[in-house]
Amino acid sequence: MSVRHALLALLSEGPKYGLQLRHEFEERTGEVWPLNVGQVYTTLQRLERDGLIQSDDEGEAGPQKSFRLTADGGAELDAWLRTPPDLSSPPRDELVIKVLVASRVPGVDVHDVVQTHRRHIVELMQEWTRVKRDAGPDEVSVALVVDAELFRLDSVMRWLDAADARLRRASPAHLPVAPSSRHSALPDPTPAREAEVRR
Fold first, then answer.
1. What is the pTM of this model?
2. pLDDT 10s digits, 122-138
3. Alpha carbon distances (Å) from 133 to 3, 35, 117, 195
């Protein structure tokens, strides 16, 4: 999440105060990412230093200080919106690392580890589905954020399912065996998961 460019986007609508920017940022993003007011003013000071915004005076940033976008700021915002994120290499995903490590730790049932995370993902998807259900019909920002999270969690769940299946097919010689399995079967969440995403 780029707070820097989000503030530029808000300022593209016209001059605004710091507290106003904080409020509008949280409102536009479905109030999912709370923004510290100190972070707002720190970011605004850096944007002004870089010539991407201008303020109505030369004093210290404060509640009554108005900021506006410059031509350079508009160009920076346009370039950011049109530049695809760098997806050329996989991120250092903590969940992926946990499963990889668990598959090699003696005495650890990697399938139990996978199931633990599957349960957690199902709970998160249920929570986001409730948020979406409780949102008003005009809360488009909330719906978009929730849809993004549901699709993201769905992809994580699919990876866990695929990882579990691949590990089960792997040669036992390449995997440590736990002395006892605490694995308890879960019902396949795929149908419910797909229904949640389609809502």
1. 0.62
2. 999 999 999 888 888 88
3. 28, 25, 24, 13
